[in-house]
Fold this protein.
Amino acid sequence: MTPSVVLVTGVSRFLGGHLAARLAANPAIERVLAVDTVPPPRDLLRRMGRAEFVRADIRNPLIAKVISTASVDTVVHASLSANPGSSGGRTAMKEMNVIGTMQLLAACQKAPSVRRMVLKSTTAVYGSSSRDPAIFDESMTPKDLPSGGYAKDAAEIEGYLRGFARRRPDVSVTVLRFSNFIGPRIDTVFTRYFALPVVPTVLGYDARVQLLHEEDALAVLERAASEEIPGVFNVAADGVLLLSQAIRRAGRIPVPVPSAAVGPVSRVFRGARLVDFSPEQMRLLNFGRVVDNGRLRRQFGFSPRWTTVQAFDDYVRGRALRPVIGPQQVESLERRLLGAARSLR
Amino acid sequence: MSEARIIPLHVDDEGHPQWRSGGQTNGHTNGHTNGHANGHTNGHARPAGADAGTDPGPAPEPATEATPPAWEEALTESLAFLRRRFSGDYAVDDFGFDADLTDNLLLPALRPLYQKWFRVETIGMRNVPDSGGALVVSNHSGTLPLDALMTAVALHDDHPAQRHLRMLGADFMFRLPVAGSLARKQGSTLACTPDAERLMSTGELVGVWPEGFKGVGKPFRDRYKLQRFGRGGFVSAALRTGVPIIPCSIVGAEETYPKIGDLKPLARLFGAPYFPVTPLFPLLGPLGLIPLPSKWYIEFGEPIYTDSIGAAEADDPMTVFNLTDQVRETIQHTLYRLLSQRRNAFLG
């Protein structure tokens, strides 16, 4: 069943904006309302075509009026932010994430027209520690509840959404837990991190990194908005890269930093506005996180087109990252050494 | 002296590439009759080092005959390995297992310890299947988990299918900086039901040491006494996935670091389960970390097939307890038998 009026939040950013554009391109959908507190960049706005941009704050009860007057039937909540820097500090980010979601859910609960709710969540809700299983599935809960930051926000928001689903059993609720996004166009902490010429890592740890290509993420969001597939789904590409491996594939130079110095170093990077690393993302660099996407394949019926390695390589190619040490240099060095050894014989 | 060796003990050890005790006998007869080579006189004076002295002797000779291709091939291979490492061109599975690194760096690093230092002999390798999932359950000892590493080398080097052992480790190990990430790359993962079942159902050979810290950190006076086998979680995981359980008994690991004391306050300071005192550690400082060169035997027993029992029984505590006891008894009896056949902890 295709929806007739879709409301998308967080359209000033890559996923929300492009999702609104894709939905607007679907003639079966009557109206697409694109909501955010700040207008999207001009090129994104142009892409969005017939989608109507509504400059509204979801923390404000006015959002209820938007939903009821347009008789929205599908809400895609994609505004969850992971970066305190770009959302005006941690306090503002938390308010936007948690209070904004509460207001939005309150508005949806009052609106009888709402039939479907899609939440863009994160695999960060599983936490990341040495005591966790290597691979998470949807039924697992973290050993230590996320103590703060984005992960805690996401865990709380999922809790509120469960409450909403109980109070409105007629609404189909889809929770999509995305792993870290990567791709040539999206701008995330990870894409900035791997673009640094020297990449700080945690000394003695090598995290497993699972990524998701931006196009796969958009396709999953679009499908969740246009079809009724309730449930919780891990959305992540197949396969894993080790952090050190990813850094080398990008031709960067890893700089291991002792655990004790990780805090100050990440503060320096934050201060210099290079990479906005929050503490839980630093923990991710210690242990990494891998999720099982079996339910996405079987129940949701979506197989990611890019594996983690392919998505990462696409990002490296698409960004035209000039490697500090290129594979050609390594290969030519290998050939030269072999040639020298043969001449010795 | 050579007649006194109890060689028939390991007759059932099939397909073992090196017959080390045989090599040692040769060394002694040579030493008696000719007495020309330095290595042999050394071997005579210190029998424990005899293998280390005699084994490398014949090894380089075939290597020198075929020198140009051999070293060049080795160089090509190691350069290709380095290139793969530098360009990140290798595959890692979801658990972080890095086969390229394990085969080319970690296992070769452990091999001298396996072949020359502990002179490990494997028995009953035919009990380990060539393919498909299986659960190797073993006794744990030796203060540092060298026994786990040696079992992994044994299953790769002495098994015809060169199987990789996926070990289940304590969370403490994964918290450690360097060891934790190396353990993952080597194929270990956290000892928890989801990980174990996932590995076994994808046809991996999984290794578990159910005694845990109680076993590896037990005092020397309790050597070869099996500790409690956890809560039998490994048995229910095997039942649920229907893979055979292979009891594995390791003799020799207890003598590597005889733990005669435990400095509890220091252990608490480091957050470690124990801080061992051995005859050499911490007395000799880092030198005390060198394991004593005990002679090792690793015996793989008859598999216990669980597919006939059925996955439903995994939730029946009585079945699980009985199977756990059966595995434990098998290992304990094998340990006693191997010990009774062993003359000396260092000579075997």
The mean pLDDT of chain A is 90. The two ends of chain A are 73 Å apart (CA to CA).
